[in-house]
Design brief:
It is a single chain. Helix 10 packs across helix 11 and helix 11 packs antiparallel against helix 12. The chain has a single domain, classed as TIM Barrel. It is α/β, with parallel strands linked by helices and 335 residues long. The radius of gyration is 19 Å and the shape is globular. The structure holds 2-O-methyl-1,6-di-O-phosphono-D-mannitol (5MM). The site of 2-O-methyl-1,6-di-O-phosphono-D-mannitol has 16 residues, from helix 12.
């Protein structure tokens, strides 16, 4: 199991973070539609391989989460995608859940599926070069939600998934995401996130998952996007740290936040402030999708052949987040 701990530390050590490029085809199509680029397999690959061959892959991006389509694709320079990523010093990873579906018994909520046949799929991904995996449970906040049922069933699935992944010698990323959607306060988010994370660890321990060989991917503590309760970045950092300190067992080596709809700068600034006050032994880094890719995607969509220009924008965001993962970022540097 030391091997899994080492992989987790290689992914997140020295300020490195994760590029979440595991959008399913449906989500990627929405992203490409928003910048008027046709969502063909070729275009999805072109954008992604542009990012995967950028210089920040060596010093900033410790791991890339891929989607099933991408891990099996061959780059324009005839490299297998996982090999391209490894050759630059980063680790290839793979999303293995099959998506969030309606939760029977509480149909307004979701349960993430994908356990059937998972052991066999994991072997296939391992043979394709994956060193780590991801599974995302998704929860909404309202007066009645997340329900006990959703908290319990998603934690159970995350734990069964993690045990299978470690059995196959890969590091599971455990991602319980409380969505920002809604008018809830930051305090509601704090309470619900604590409850969800605590339940996840209860189940992970029950399923004998080695906590030294996982990465937790949580949301930050934020007020809902329709909330009147506005809190400062300093408060976001304080609440987030307080929540994780009291809910995450100390064996866990690293925490890599999702950006969850924050703007690029917000996600970087909040991560930086968290690291400025981080008095735990947890590495606190990033596993961003939108907050790493948004500007690069916008630029790329204007001229999909401008590889260098796109990489420059992506490299800048990766560098800024790597500084933030060490508490060394500032707005002046970013500008
Ligand atoms: C990249 O998006 C992932 C989900 O994709 P699907 O909804 O298509 O399955 C998502 O899990 C992502 O990895 C995390 O939410 C982090 O992305 P953001 O954009 O929130 O940082």
């Amino acid at each position: 199991m030391t091997k899994l701990n080492n992989i987790a530390l290689e992914i997140l050590g020295n300020g490195k973070g994760i590029l979440a490029a595991d959008e399913s085809t449906g989500t990627m199509t929405k992203r490409l539609d928003s910048v008027n680029v046709p969502s063909t397999a070729e275009n999805r690959l072109l954008f992604r391989e542009t990012l995967f061959s950028s210089s920040s892959m060596t010093n900033c991006i410790g791991g890339v989460i891929l989607y099933d389509e991408t891990i099996k694709q061959i780059s324009s320079k005839k490299n297998k995608i996982p090999e391209l990523i490894s050759s630059l010093g980063s680790h290839p990873g793979i999303k293995v859940d099959t998506g969030a579906k309606v939760l029977a018994g509480s149909p307004e909520e979701k349960i993430t599926e994908g356990l059937d046949g998972l052991r066999e799929r994991l072997k296939e991904y391992y043979n394709l070069g994956a060193k780590f995996t991801k599974w995302r449970g998704v929860y909404t906040i309202s007066k009645d939600y997340p329900s006990k049922l959703s908290i319990h069933s998603n934690a159970h699935a995350l734990a069964r998934y993690s045990a299978l992944v470690q059995e196959c010698n890969m590091v599971p990323i455990v991602e319980p995401e409380i969505l920002m959607d809604g008018d809830h306060s930051a305090n509601d988010c704090y309470q619900k996130t604590s409850e969800v994370i605590q339940k996840c660890f209860e189940e992970l321990i029950l399923h004998k998952v080695d906590l030294k060989g996982i990465i937790l991917k949580p949301n930050m503590i934020l007020a809902g996007n329709k909330s009147k309760d506005k809190i400062t970045s300093k408060e976001v950092a304080e609440l987030t740290l307080k929540c994780l300190k009291s809910s995450v067992p100390s064996e866990v080596p690293g925490i890599a936040f999702l950006s969850g709809g924050q703007s690029e700068i917000e996600a970087t600034e909040n991560l930086n402030l968290i690291n400025k006050i981080n008095n735990t032994n947890f590495i606190m880094s990033y596993s961003y999708g939108r907050a790493l890719q948004q500007s690069a995607l916008k630029f790329w969509s204007k001229n999909i052949k401008d590889i260098e220009g796109t990489q420059k924008i992506f490299d800048h965001r990766a560098k800024m987040n790597t500084l933030a993962a060490q508490g060394k970022w500032s707005r002046e540097i970013d500008n």
